[in-house]
Design goal:
This protein is α+β, with helices and mostly antiparallel strands and 279 residues long. The protein contains two helices and 16 strands. It has a domain of 185 residues: Jelly Rolls (Sandwich), CATH 2.60.120.
Length: 279
């Protein structure tokens, strides 16, 4: 008799232990789904009416080289001089591009001038430029000043082999790399911008007795609209692992949530009850 009572007692404790296990599994699955969904619905950041789905990490992080072409005018004044000869000004988010106020005070300007046909090479370190698979711009060049000055744009995966992807002009600051044969499976970490020596204003300006050396294109920021996060790399030129797209994250999160909900419904309502005599 005591043996039967012990077995009944053990049986009565099983549902409670099973519920604890089920609750733990559902909690874990829900946590994973929440993390994936938070990544998938990360808010898009807009800079001067240009949307960057990846936010502030979309912008160039380091200067690889800065090679302005500087000349002196008849008064021996350079076409590029401080504060417009600091290449670091081209890093990070745009802060000198304002169509409503194209000529802020010099202290408010944080852009770098390229001079007559000069160039600047920038690198993304925590993200990479990729194609979008459509005709929308993938790369955006922010320039300061009254108008956009033309720059030739090149991209590179390793900083050695370069691919030309057109140029910006007074009407277009964006570059669609898909139009040049690249797509979502391609990842570029390097951007080189070269001033167009045939079209831009390359002289400095004398304003209120102060010489302003901002000849050539004035680069404020460079951002990858179509951007992917970098995974661990072995070297600067190592390939990138395929990242999850937001679409994949949505699918995975929904699948996990569906599994968790389905399992809960099955255990709670559909699972056949054991026989009372099944000890």
């Amino acid at each position: 008799m005591n043996g039967i009572e012990n077995r009944l007692s053990e049986r009565n404790t099983r549902p409670f232990g099973r519920r604890i296990i089920i609750f733990s599994v559902l909690l874990s699955l829900s946590a994973v789904a929440v993390v994936l969904l938070s990544e998938a619905v990360a808010p898009t950041t807009t800079f001067y009416d240009v949307e960057f789905p990846a936010g502030e990490v979309s912008f160039a992080d380091t200067v690889v080289s800065y090679e302005p072409i500087i000349y002196l005018n008849d008064e021996r004044l350079p076409n590029v001089r401080e504060p417009f000869n600091n290449p670091v000004s081209a890093l990070g988010v745009p802060n000198s591009t304002n169509p409503q106020h194209p000529l802020p005070s010099l202290s408010a300007r944080h852009d770098v001038s390229l001079g007559l046909g000069g160039s600047i090479t920038l690198r993304f370190t925590n993200n990479a430029l990729t194609g979008s698979g459509d005709i929308k711009p993938d790369l955006w060049i922010f320039e300061a000043g009254e108008k956009t000055e033309s720059v030739f744009v090149e991209i590179s995966k390793d900083g050695k082999t370069w691919q030309a992807v057109g140029r910006t002009d007074t009407k277009h600051n964006g570059i669609d790399i898909d139009a040049f044969g690249w797509g979502p499976e391609d990842y570029f970490s390097y951007i080189r911008l070269t001033d167009d020596p045939e079209e831009n204003e390359h002289d400095g300006v004398l304003s209120n007795g102060q010489w302003i050396g901002w000849g050539g294109a004035d680069i404020d920021a460079v951002g990858a609209i179509s951007s992917v996060s970098l995974v661990s790399t072995v070297s600067h030129s190592s390939p990138l692992a395929m990242p999850f797209s937001k679409t994949i994250l949505w699918i995975v999160a929904i699948a996990i949530a569906a599994i968790a909900i389905g399992y809960a419904i099955y255990v709670s309502f559909l699972k056949p009850k054991s026989s009372k005599n099944d000890f």
